[in-house]
């Protein structure tokens, strides 16, 4: 009788232990980020693929990111307006890279290449080709996402020294 009880006790203990391990495994799977989430933090783009005054919209962490290669005239204008610091320089080229969400209430502004400006149709806010606000109500220029320059590539989501400088001098807010 006692042998049988011992056996039942051991079997029950074994099941309990197995159940515990199973529960721990299930909990770990719940806590671990999905593989897609792990890789979604970074977006790598190659800046040599972009054309002057042609707006491209990329995606980073579910947000649209505008990339606009600047023409010579745009660069001159940005220099004059003191907005060159908003642009990312790679070799001899300059790029505007910004989160494509209006800083007023988050609509996506549209780009007009003819007058090189953005219009947010929601409340009429406007931005120039460096994505600096030129007409209220947006309170500031489009925000610049964290980036790191790697040759001609830009890794969005990584923080390089150029982005840190933009944060430090108030060129952009942290996204
Ligand atoms: S959301 Fe863009 S102007 Fe209001």
Short description:
With 175 residues, the protein is an alpha+beta fold. Helix content is 31%, strand content 27%.
| Subunit arrangement of the protein | single chain
Question: What characterizes the major β-sheet?
Answer: 4 strands, antiparallel
Order of helices and strands: HHEEEHEEEEEEEEH
Helix amount:
25-40%
- By helix and strand content, what is the structural category? alpha+beta
| Number of distinct helices | 4
Total discrete domains = 2
Strand order of the largest sheet: 2-3-5-4
End-to-end Cα distance, whole Å, is 70 Å
The CATH superfamily of the largest domain turns out to be Rieske [2Fe-2S] iron-sulphur domain
- How large is the share of residues in beta strands? 25-35%
Could you tell me the radius of gyration in angstroms? Answer: 26 Å
Q: Report the average pLDDT across residues.
A: 87
The counted number of beta strands is 11
Q: Name the overall outline.
A: globular
Can you tell me the CATH topology of the largest domain? Rieske Iron-sulfur Protein
| Assigned CATH class of the largest domain | Mainly Beta
